[in-house]
Amino acid sequence: MPLHICFIHGKESGPWGNKGQLFSRIANERGHEFSALNYLTAENPDDPESRVKMLNAYLAETRVPSKELVLVGSSMGGYVAARTSQTYKAAGMFLMAPALGLENYPVQWPEIKADSVYLVHGLFDRVIPWVNSNDLSQKLDCKIHLVADDHRLGDSMNFIEEDFLAFLEPLEMALKD
User: Fold this and answer.
1) Nearest Cα to 14, choosing from 44, 54, 41?
2) pLDDT cut 70: percent of the chain above it
3) Contact status, residue 138 vs residue 119, Cβ threshold 8 Å
4) 98 vs 33: CA distance, rounded Å
5) Where do the DSSP E strands lie in the chain?
6) C-alpha triplet 156, 30, 11: angle, nearest 5°
């Protein structure tokens, strides 16, 4: 039984940037389903809640079972993943520089509902402080990988791939049980 890896891009990027291509390739190589909506087409793309509404509608339509759902979010996409998990619990959530703990977002610290959470954040991020992800990792008691990179994590794609593969293994094993 395959997982459904749902990639949620950030505010100014798109579904088929470097990260989207990476997660699509991994999903394909490992026999999983992959989706990446274009949130720039949301009703109000600058409003994270508009993107949450879009993803909730997609998940309601596709009816991906909780045990198969893996939400992968980058920046604003991390916020969208966290908020969406309140309605659609995920087996796993892989967040890169998630936009959490920000005063200008409707819900600063959404309750994350996922069986497994993994965080990656750049130490030189000037958009979202890495300490926000560090605080979240302590709250959730989940793994975090702090890398010597900026918000885009462009120099950390190899680390991200390695981390994601290690993150996927127990989720894949759980489906075989």
Assistant:
1) 41
2) 100
3) no
4) 23
5) 4-8, 33-35, 69-74, 90-96, 114-122, 143-147
6) 45
Q: Using one digit for the tens of pLDDT, what is the confidence trace for 29-41?
A: 999 999 999 999 9
C-alpha dihedral sign at 58, 98, 166, 143: negative
Is the distance from CB of 114 to CB of 87 less than 8 angstroms?
no
Query: What's the whole-number average pLDDT of the chain?
Result: 97
Say what the pTM is. 0.97
Round to whole Å and give the CA distance between 35 and 161. Answer: 17
pLDDT of residue 2: 96
Give per-residue burial for 23-52: e unless 16+ CB within 10 Å, then b: bbebbeeeebebbbbebeebeebeebbebb
pLDDT band at 176 (very low <50, low <70, confident <90, very high): confident
pLDDT (average), residues 152-175: 97
Whole-number Cα distances in Å, 127 to 97, 102, 152, 170, 175 = 9, 10, 9, 32, 37
Question: How many residues can be counted in the chain?
Answer: 177
Written as six digits, the tokens of 25 are 């390739």
CATH number of 4-176: 3.40.50.1820
pLDDT score for 27: 98
Q: Which amino acid is at 137?
A: S
